[in-house]
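Recap slide: Cytosine-specific methyltransferase, sequence and predicted structure.
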Amino acid sequence: MSKKYTFIDLFAGCGGFSEGFYQEKFESVVHVDFDAPACETVKERMRYYNYSENAIESAVICGDLTSDDVHKQIDSVISNRQVDVLVGGPPCQTFSSVGRAQDKNSMRNDPRNYLFRSYLEILEKHKPKIFVFENVSGLLSAKPNGNYIFPEIVENMSEYYSLCDDRGTILLNSVHYGVPQIRKRVILIGVRKDLKINPLDIYKAIEKTHYSPDMVVNNETLGLQKYLTVEDAISDLPKLLPGEGQEEVEHEIAIKNSFTRIVRPNGFSKLYNHVARKHNNMDQQRYELLSKNKWQLKDLAKTRPDLIHHDPKHFGNRYTVQVADKPGRTVVAHLYKDGNLFIHPDHKQKRTFTVREAARVQSFPDDFKFVGSRTNQYKQVGNAVPPLMARQIAKAIKTFLV
């Protein structure tokens, strides 16, 4: 019988990172998140993996990682257990270029800039063998107090851990790991110094399986499969008009493609969270025309200025159609406010993505059920680490654990 490796997930959200580790047969010890519906989704998924109710109730801590009480709860659950891997990504809105651009102080005063210190506190206290720290690429250029924050994070982590801070190595794109989405993220992997494992070897073991569109231009596709597209991800899903759909329906796929073979378990006959937002008549006209003609907002302004209520010069990407034959754009948490960045490529449906469509583009399996209001479900999907990317990281790490 193979050994069960353990992991803890901080800032866990709905458990996208955890899902990748579950798929590689890791055992969860603790999940921590501030958002109650996301915690309920984590619990739902633990039930799927046959954890007992007692284990679930102790393992899922819904609270603020800056709180002493939460740290005491974590200590109590971990007790004397050896933790193999710590994963997590502190909230990234303050490090994203979009977030900084929308805040008059570039989010310098936002307390979320320093939530990484809570991650460090757990890291130093429990000293797992390996950690994985995930964040947006904007972390590399963030200067919340006038100084770059990334070197501070690396310096703090380096006391007990060996890690690589080479930007060409640590910036991973989910599209390379079978995710139908362009999503570049900083993935910092650290190895406890007494283990004598070179973190670079772990990065080399994170297997790229698919090439990205830019690799075609540079003729770097040798030996890799073609990137997966939005069409690969969602074309089988029931067609919906605005306001249509149900939280749970029966769904069968006649012919699976390479992606749906992975995310659609054999024998699974349901579909969760496939409900379309209601859109007013003006929005439906916008979506239909933008999608049908593959337009941007500036193109719509020339032919139907009556449908424009944003300045196309300043809000050029405010409405974005997902291109069917390309990987999806980065799924973001803003999706919970509106879906204008995720207009369905089928103009006849004249709507934005459902939660399930966004989840497919994020590579969540179809039997992964999101709990909570639909607004919160969108937020959960947008904040998540793509499970297939997390799985490749877990798979690589597993080969180095003894």
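The chain is about 35% helix and 15% strand.
The radius of gyration is 21 Å.
(End of recap.)
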